[in-house]
Amino acid sequence: MTDLAQSAPASMATTSSRLKRDALAIAIIIAVAAVGFFLFPNNLALLSRIVIMMLIVLSLDLVTGYGGIATLGQAAISGSGAYAAGIAAAHFGIVDPLAMLAVGAAGGALAGLVSSVIILRGHGLAQLVLSIAIVQLAHEAANKASAWTGGSDGLSGIAPSPVFGMFQFDLWGRTTFFLAVALLIVVFFLLRLIMRSPFGMLCRAIKEDPVRVRAMGAAVKPTLIKLYVLSGAVAGLGGALHAISTRVVGLDSVSFNLSAEALVMLVLGGTGNLFGAMIGTLVFVWFEDLVSSINPFHWLTMVGVLLAAVVLFAPRGLTGAAEDIYRRLRRDREASK
Questions:
Q1: Along the chain (337 residues), what's the average pLDDT of each consecutive run of 10 residues?
Q2: Considering its fold, how many domains does the chain have in total?
Q3: Which of 3, 24, 185, 243 has a C-alpha 20 to 30 A away from that of 234?
Q4: How far is residue 124 from each of residues 131, 186, 212, 244, measured CA to CA in Å?
Q5: Residue 212 belongs to some domain of the structure
Q6: Is 14 within a domain?
Q7: Is the model's pTM score more than 0.90?
Q8: Would you say residue 16 lies in a domain?
Q9: 257 is in which domain, residue-wise?
C-alpha cells in the first residue's frame, strides 16, 4: 500500500511534466509560425509547403524512426491521400476542406494498410526494394487512370469551400497557412500522446529487438501494420492539404523524388524524434529555396554538401547533435562545481 501511495504522486508528476513539455512544444510551433507569417507575408505558399512536408515526414518518422521499417515509398501513401481528396472534390462535389482532409486521411490509411502487407513481407534491403516498387506502381496507376486522376495533365477542378463556411481561401494563402499550422499542431500533439502510450512503447521495442518482443508473446506484425495505417493517415492528411493548397494534384505527388526527399529531411533532422522530423523539413526546404534562388544552376551541389556534412559530423541528425552538445555542456557545468 505504501509503495502504491508513493508511486501515484510520482506518476502524476511525470504526466504533468510531459504535458508541460507538450505545451512548450506547441508554443514553439505557434511562435515559429507567427514569425514566419509576419516576416514572409508574401511567401506563405512556401511556408504552407513546409508544413505539408512536415506532415509527410512525420508520417515517415513513425514507420522508420519508431518502427524500424526501411521504406522509400511514402509518396505513394501521401499521394493516395492527395488523389482521394482531389477526386472527392472534383468528381463527387465534396469541397468542404475538413471533409476533404478526412477523405485524404482515409485514403492514406488504406494505402498504408496495403503497403504494409507488402513491405512487411521483406526485411532490410528487400523492404526498400518493395517500397520503391510500390511508389513506381502508384505513379503508373495514377498516370493510366487519367479519367479519374487527370493523368500527366494533373487533376484539376478542385475548389475547396471556405473553412467553417467563413474563411475563404485567398490568393495570398493566409487561410491555407492557418489551416496547415492548426492541423500540424493537432497531429503533433496526438502523435506525442500515441508514441508515449503502451502501443508506442511496443513499437519502439519492436524496432530494437523484434525477436525478443515476439518471444514475450507480443504480436509484432499486426502492431507494425497498425503503425503503418496510422502513418498512412498522417501522410494522407499531408496529401489532402496539398490538394487543398494548390487545387491541383499531379503525378509528382506519387513520385520517387518526393519519397527520397522526405527520407533526406528525416535523416537531416533525426529519426525517432517528432521534433527532429519537423526541424529537418524546415531546414531542408528553407535551404533548398535559398540556394536555388542564389544559384539556380548548382543549388543541388550545395544541398548535397549540407547533407554530407550532417551525415559525417552529426550522424544522429540536427536534433541528435543538439542533444549531445547540451549533455556535454551540462556535464562540464556539473564537473566545474
A1: 51 68 88 92 91 96 92 94 95 94 96 94 88 94 93 90 89 90 95 93 91 89 95 96 94 92 91 90 90 78 81 83 83 76
A2: 1
A3: 24
A4: 11, 32, 18, 35
A5: yes
A6: no
A7: yes
A8: no
A9: 24-267
